[in-house]
């Protein structure tokens, strides 16, 4: 699941390689995360028919192909095609992996295990920038990163294929596109889907945009700015790990409200602090936002467990926020500066807080 976070390092490196504008560079996350909007609900229907494990393997295979393509043929066109395949594959992976995990863990530990999965995911996300720097220093080619992650994705297909998982069969055989979209008439589900749209937009926006903010507004060098992204994912990794522990003792709803408020505070502070403080705040932002996604997902599935495939499809459709929010940030940055682009993240967090507070007792 973490491999889609390569859009961040991709934006910085490819922007320089092809001398792209800020808005044009944000086409990279756009072509990747668009597919979450287009395919998530149909994939939810297909997984109800063919099984989550089967679809997960298909997604991992497509992800691998998408990553290897821009390594073999490097042009802006093949980069966009490769990231599109990465987005398609990762859409399938994320639609299938979360409910598959829910199915094999105890019900009272769903939030904790989903947070722990985000901890593991953050490890892969965090490795992108340092591996790119390592391959550049050792071999003069940062794109070896694509090959490394692509081969890993293909090996994952072999690994999962040998893992025995007994999937339950229930009324999800009646899942359809219509039944999925009808769930949006449910105010609670609609609010939680919007929360996913915004929190993924925040995550991808910070991942793909913070480097440019650090360089243009704070005067940091490229390597330091890229390492700032790794600091963010380190914070996410630790935050997810701590969340998996704390959620065994703290109610999910209370934890969600608290972590959203803290995230908003840090995102506002980073707009006014200097370079050193900004790097510290980057870690704290990653720490605080780490559990919002798994909390929203688990609360929704726990409330309507019999609709897990449909909910998963809708929520992964909302991951398209990772295409929309960064693109808006890039456009605003081109019209003004990167500070105002970063302000969008605080606005998104404010909306999440309002949605959570309005639905917390439902």
From TrEMBL:
InterPro entries: MFS, MFS_dom, MFS_trans_sf, MFS_TsgA-like. SUPFAM superfamilies: MFS general substrate transporter. Its main location: membrane. It is a multi-pass membrane protein. PROSITE patterns: MFS (PS50850). GO terms for molecular function: transmembrane transporter activity. This is MFS transporter.
């Amino acid at each position: 699941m973490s491999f889609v976070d390569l859009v961040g390092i991709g934006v910085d490196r490819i922007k320089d390689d092809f001398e792209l504008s800020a808005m044009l560079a944000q086409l990279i996350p756009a072509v990747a995360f668009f597919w979450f909007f287009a395919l998530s609900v149909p994939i939810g229907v297909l997984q109800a028919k063919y099984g989550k494990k089967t679809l997960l393997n298909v997604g991992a295979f497509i992800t691998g192909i998408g990553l290897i393509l821009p390594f073999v043929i490097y042009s802006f066109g093949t980069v966009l095609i490769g990231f599109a395949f990465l987005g398609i594959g990762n859409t399938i992976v994320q639609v299938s992996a979360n409910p598959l995990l829910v199915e094999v863990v105890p019900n009272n530990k769903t939030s904790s295990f989903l947070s722990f999965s985000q901890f593991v995911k953050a490890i892969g996300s965090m490795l992108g920038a340092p591996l790119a720097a390592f391959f550049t220093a050792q071999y003069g080619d940062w794109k070896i990163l694509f090959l490394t992650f692509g081969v890993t994705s293909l090996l994952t297909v072999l690994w999962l294929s040998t893992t025995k998982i007994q999937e339950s069969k229930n009324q999800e055989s009646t899942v359809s596109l219509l039944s999925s979209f009808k769930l949006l008439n449910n105010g609670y589900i609609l609010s939680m889907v919007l929360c996913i749209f915004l929190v993924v937009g925040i995550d991808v926006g910070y991942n793909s945009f913070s480097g440019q903010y650090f360089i243009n507004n704070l005067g940091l060098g490229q390597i330091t700015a890229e390492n700032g992204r790794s600091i963010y994912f380190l914070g996410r990794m630790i935050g997810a790990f701590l969340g998996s522990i704390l959620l065994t003792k703290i109610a999910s709803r209370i934890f969600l409200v608290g972590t959203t408020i803290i995230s908003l505070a840090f995102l506002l502070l980073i707009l006014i602090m200097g370079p050193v403080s900004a790097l510290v705040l980057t870690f704290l932002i990653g720490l605080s936002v780490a559990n919002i996604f798994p909390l929203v997902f688990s609360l929704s599935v726990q409330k309507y467990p019999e609709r897990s495939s449909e909910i998963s499809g809708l929520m992964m459709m909302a991951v398209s926020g990772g295409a929309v929010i960064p693109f808006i940030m890039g456009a605003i940055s081109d019209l003004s500066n990167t500070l105002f682009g970063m302000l969008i993240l605080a606005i998104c967090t404010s909306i999440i807080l309002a949605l959570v507070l309005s639905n917390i007792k439902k």
